Amino acid sequence: MAHTKTGASVKGSRDSIAKRLGVKKYGGQTVIPGNIIVRQRGSKVHPGRGVIMGRDYTIMAVKEGLVNFSRQYGKTIVNVSK
Q: pLDDT tens across 25-37, in order?
C-alpha cells in the first residue's frame, strides 16, 4: 500500500481579525458632530475642545469644524474648532 495517512492540520494558522484602529480624520479635515476622529486602545490621544472620548477610548467630534492635533505637556491633544 503506497497510501500516506492524513497528517494533522496546522495548529498555528489562526489569527484574529483586524480591529481597524487609528486616525480616521487628520488635521485640517472638516468634521460634523458624531464623526469618529481616532479609534484607539487606551488614551494615546487625549480629547480637547469640541471632542469627547467614548467608553472604548474612541474620540468623536461634538461640533462642526476643523480637526487640529497638538502636543501639550507631552500628550497629543485633538481639538475641533471653526
A: 999 999 999 999 9
Write down the residue that cell numbers 472604548 correspond to. 56
Count how many Cα atoms sit within 13 Å of the Cα of residue 49 in the half-sphere of its side chain.
Answer: 7
**Cα separation, 28 vs 54, whole angstroms:** 22
Secondary-structure class of domain 22-81 per CATH: mainly beta
Q: CA 38 to CA 58: how far, in whole Å?
A: 6
The model's pTM is 0.82
Structure-derived torsion over alpha carbons of residues 18, 44, 70, 26, reported in degrees to the nearest 10: 10
Domain ranges of the chain: 22-81
DSSP letter at 22 equals: E
Residue with cell 500500500: 1
